[in-house]
Design brief:
Blueprint lengths: L4 H10 L3 E5 L5 E2 L10 E4 L9 H6 L2 E4 L11 H18 L2
Parallel strand pairs: 1-3, 1-4, 2-4
Length: 95
């Protein structure tokens, strides 16, 4: 847990960690987006409210998780699992 998320994200970026946020209105989807092979930090929005403007602006990239059928959103634990698995999948594929 951190007291100032924007400052923590800035510090992560200074350490060459790519910050990716999830947003329903993002133009890239999780499966076609490309990001560096190095460190990745995921920012997940709050359920229902999403993420704050300043937090969104600190992200290097915003992606959305494509939904199929009548599903409109996922809870944050499910969304986190999907994003972490996709990170692992892309890393294994690029080896």
């Amino acid at each position: 847990m951190v007291t100032n998320l924007a400052r923590t994200l800035r510090e992560l970026k200074e350490r060459d960690i790519w910050v990716i946020g999830t947003a329903g209105e993002a133009t890239e989807d999780l499966y076609t987006a490309q990001w560096p092979v190095g460190g990745v930090a995921w920012v997940m929005g709050a359920e229902g409210d999403g993420m704050r403007r300043l937090t969104r602006e600190k992200c290097d990239q915003l992606v959305q998780i494509p939904m199929i059928g009548s599903v409109e959103s996922l809870n944050v634990s499910v969304a986190s699992s999907i994003c972490l698995f996709e990170t692992l999948r892309q890393r294994q594929f690029t080896k």
